[in-house]
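This is your field. Have a critical look at the following sequence-structure pair:

***
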Amino acid sequence: MSAALIVAPASGPLCGLKVLEFAGIGPVPFCGMLLADLGADVLRIDRPGRRYGAEEIETRGRRSLVLDLKSTAGLATALALAEKADALLEGYRPGVMERLGIGPDAVLARQPRLVYARMTGWGQSGPLAHAAGHDINFLALSGALHAIGPAERPAIPLNVVGDLGGGALYLAFGILAGVLHASKSGEGQVIDCAMADGAASLLAMVYGRLARGGWRDTRESNVIDGGAHFYNTYECADGKWLALGALEPRFYTRLLRAAGIEDPRFAQQMDSASWPELRARLAQLLRTRSRDEWCRLFADADACVTPVLSLAEAPQHPHYLARHTFIELDGVLQPAPVPRFSRTPGVAQHGPVAAGTHDDTALASWCSEPPG
C-alpha cells in the first residue's frame, strides 16, 4: 500500500460484509462505493495497467487486486476469492463471465450462499440483452426521457436516472436483500439488475397517474414536469436561476405574498389552461431582481423557493456546511457517505487506489477470514 494513502478505519452497518467487485464503469463502481462507504470490505479485481485518479470518486474506499482472468492462475485466484465473498458484483455483457469461467454456475457451486449481482443496461435476457446502449438509451425505452424536459424536446438528466438511480441504487438494494435472504436460508442467488428496468421502476408513480388520467403524456403539461408556473425554474436579472416548488396551496399563497403578487389571475392555482400565461408573467417579474436578492426576499417565507446552485456553489451553502455533506479526500472535494446512521455511521475509508495496490495483502487477508 502506498505510504501516502490515508486510511480511516472501516465504519458502518455493513462492516464484515465481503464484496468481490469486478472493475467496470458507471453503476458498478458507484454501487461499490455505496457499499464501501457503509463499511463493506470491497475488493476490486482490476486489469493490469488500469490507473485511477483521485478525482474518480466513485472508486474510493476499496482495495485493488490485479488478475489476468484469462490465465489459469488468475481464474483460480478469482474463484478462491469468490468462495470467501458474501456478494460478487460484475457489469459485463451477458455471457462474458461465463466465457471466463467465473459465471454464476461455477461460483455458486463453490459458494452456495453467494449473492451474484449482475449489472447490465438491458438485462440478461430479452431481444436487446446483447445490444450496446448508454444511459440515454435506457431512459428512452422506459418512457422517462419522453417525460423530461420542455415541450420542444426531451432533456437529458445527466446519468443520474438510469446509470445511478435505476442501476447502482437498485443493485445495492438487491445485494443487501440477497445477503439478508442468504443469512436466513443459506441460499445464494443471481441478481439480474438492468438499468432499463430500474428506469421504468422509478416511473411507478407517473405510470400510476397516467393510468388514472392524472398525467398528460406530453412534456411540460403536468404539475411537476415544468407545465405549472408554481413548480418551475426562472431566470433572474443576473442570469442565475431560482427553483420554485410551491406545490401545496399554503406554499403557493406564501409565494404570492412574498413576491408581492396581487394579480387576480394567479388566484386559480390549478387552472392548467392559464399556466402558460402565468409562467410568462412570473418569468417577467423574477427577471427584475438578482437571484440572491430574491433569495433574501424569500428567506423567511417558507414558500419552497431555493436558488439553483452551480456545482461550485453547492458545497458552500450553509445547509451543506452545517451537515458536512461534502468532505475533502486526497485534495478532492466530494459528497460524504450517505445515508446517515445514528449508531454505525459510514466513512469514506480512503480515496481511489491504483490497480494492484493490494496485490500483496488482499488475497492473504481475504482467504484467511470467513465471509461476513
